[in-house]
Amino acid sequence: MSANSAKDKVKDLLLNATGPSNAVSSREINEQVDVDSVGSFPQTREIVRELLMNEGIPVASNSNGYYVIESEEQLADYVNTLDSRITGIAERRYGILRAADQWDGDIEDSDDHDVL
Protein backbone atom coordinates (compact mmCIF):
# COMPACT_ATOMS: atom_id res chain seq x y z
CA MET A 1 0.00 0.00 0.00
CA SER A 2 1.38 3.41 -0.92
CA ALA A 3 2.06 6.01 1.76
CA ASN A 4 -0.79 8.23 0.53
CA SER A 5 -3.34 5.43 0.36
CA ALA A 6 -2.27 4.26 3.84
CA LYS A 7 -2.72 7.79 5.17
CA ASP A 8 -6.13 8.07 3.49
CA LYS A 9 -7.21 4.75 5.01
CA VAL A 10 -6.03 5.78 8.49
CA LYS A 11 -7.83 9.10 8.05
CA ASP A 12 -11.07 7.30 7.17
CA LEU A 13 -10.73 4.99 10.17
CA LEU A 14 -10.12 7.90 12.52
CA LEU A 15 -12.96 10.00 11.15
CA ASN A 16 -15.24 7.12 12.12
CA ALA A 17 -13.73 6.93 15.61
CA THR A 18 -15.29 9.99 17.17
CA GLY A 19 -15.13 10.38 20.91
CA PRO A 20 -13.14 8.39 23.46
CA SER A 21 -15.65 5.54 23.63
CA ASN A 22 -15.07 4.83 19.93
CA ALA A 23 -11.27 4.88 20.05
CA VAL A 24 -9.45 2.64 17.58
CA SER A 25 -6.16 1.06 18.61
CA SER A 26 -2.89 1.13 16.69
CA ARG A 27 -3.26 -2.63 16.28
CA GLU A 28 -6.74 -2.25 14.80
CA ILE A 29 -5.53 0.48 12.46
CA ASN A 30 -2.57 -1.61 11.35
CA GLU A 31 -4.80 -4.64 10.72
CA GLN A 32 -6.64 -2.49 8.15
CA VAL A 33 -3.65 -0.61 6.72
CA ASP A 34 -0.74 -3.05 7.24
CA VAL A 35 2.14 -0.56 7.32
CA ASP A 36 3.91 -1.95 10.40
CA SER A 37 5.61 -5.23 11.12
CA VAL A 38 6.79 -4.01 14.53
CA GLY A 39 4.42 -4.48 17.48
CA SER A 40 4.76 -0.89 18.70
CA PHE A 41 3.35 0.35 15.35
CA PRO A 42 5.75 3.27 14.76
CA GLN A 43 4.62 3.96 11.18
CA THR A 44 0.97 3.86 12.20
CA ARG A 45 1.69 6.34 15.01
CA GLU A 46 3.59 8.56 12.56
CA ILE A 47 0.60 8.65 10.18
CA VAL A 48 -1.71 9.59 13.06
CA ARG A 49 0.74 12.32 14.14
CA GLU A 50 0.85 13.64 10.57
CA LEU A 51 -2.95 13.79 10.42
CA LEU A 52 -2.94 15.85 13.62
CA MET A 53 -0.02 18.13 12.86
CA ASN A 54 -0.32 18.60 9.07
CA GLU A 55 -3.99 18.07 8.32
CA GLY A 56 -5.41 19.58 11.50
CA ILE A 57 -7.56 16.62 12.50
CA PRO A 58 -8.05 16.85 16.28
CA VAL A 59 -6.85 13.33 17.07
CA ALA A 60 -6.49 12.43 20.74
CA SER A 61 -5.68 9.14 22.39
CA ASN A 62 -6.49 7.17 25.49
CA SER A 63 -5.73 3.68 26.76
CA ASN A 64 -8.06 2.25 24.10
CA GLY A 65 -6.51 4.01 21.11
CA TYR A 66 -7.03 7.07 18.94
CA TYR A 67 -10.18 9.08 18.43
CA VAL A 68 -11.30 12.37 16.94
CA ILE A 69 -12.38 14.93 19.54
CA GLU A 70 -16.02 15.89 19.16
CA SER A 71 -16.63 18.30 22.06
CA GLU A 72 -14.91 21.04 24.01
CA GLU A 73 -15.20 18.88 27.13
CA GLN A 74 -13.22 16.09 25.43
CA LEU A 75 -10.63 18.64 24.31
CA ALA A 76 -10.30 20.04 27.86
CA ASP A 77 -9.98 16.52 29.30
CA TYR A 78 -7.30 15.59 26.77
CA VAL A 79 -5.33 18.83 27.28
CA ASN A 80 -5.44 18.19 31.06
CA THR A 81 -4.08 14.69 30.45
CA LEU A 82 -1.25 16.11 28.32
CA ASP A 83 -0.46 18.75 30.96
CA SER A 84 -0.28 16.02 33.58
CA ARG A 85 2.10 13.99 31.42
CA ILE A 86 4.29 17.05 30.82
CA THR A 87 4.48 17.65 34.57
CA GLY A 88 5.34 14.01 35.21
CA ILE A 89 8.11 14.05 32.60
CA ALA A 90 9.54 17.30 34.01
CA GLU A 91 9.55 15.80 37.51
CA ARG A 92 11.30 12.67 36.24
CA ARG A 93 13.86 14.82 34.39
CA TYR A 94 14.60 16.77 37.55
CA GLY A 95 14.79 13.53 39.54
CA ILE A 96 17.27 11.82 37.21
CA LEU A 97 19.53 14.87 37.11
CA ARG A 98 19.45 15.17 40.90
CA ALA A 99 20.10 11.43 41.34
CA ALA A 100 23.01 11.52 38.88
CA ASP A 101 24.49 14.51 40.71
CA GLN A 102 24.23 12.72 44.07
CA TRP A 103 25.23 9.27 42.78
CA ASP A 104 28.29 7.74 44.43
CA GLY A 105 28.88 5.39 41.50
CA ASP A 106 30.71 6.25 38.31
CA ILE A 107 29.00 8.06 35.48
CA GLU A 108 31.49 8.59 32.68
CA ASP A 109 31.89 12.23 31.59
CA SER A 110 31.55 13.16 27.94
CA ASP A 111 33.03 16.06 26.01
CA ASP A 112 29.93 16.05 23.80
CA HIS A 113 27.43 16.67 26.61
CA ASP A 114 27.15 19.09 29.49
CA VAL A 115 24.59 17.36 31.68
CA LEU A 116 26.61 16.52 34.78
Write the layout of secondary structure elements.
Elements (H helix, E strand, L loop, with lengths): L2 H13 L10 H8 L8 H12 L5 E4 L2 E4 L3 H31 L14
Antiparallel strand pairs: 1-2
Helix pairs in contact: 1-3
Work out the strand percent.
5-15%
Secondary-structure element string: HHHEEH
The number of E-state strands comes to 2
Question: Could you describe the largest sheet, including whether it forms a barrel?
Answer: 2 strands, antiparallel
Which term fits the overall shape? extended
Whole-number mean pLDDT: 93
Radius of gyration, CA atoms, in whole angstroms: 19 Å
| Tally of individual helices | 4
Helix content: 55-70%
Ranges where pLDDT stays below 50 over 5 or more residues in a row are none
Protein traits:
about 120 residues; mainly alpha; 4 helices; extended
What features would you describe in this structure?
This protein has 116 residues and is mainly alpha-helical. It contains four helices and two strands; from the N terminus they run αααββα. It has helices at residues 3-15, 26-33, 42-53, 72-102; strands at 59-62, 65-68. The protein has a two-stranded antiparallel sheet. Helix 1 (3-15) crosses helix 3. The radius of gyration is 19 Å and the shape is extended. 15% of the residues are buried.
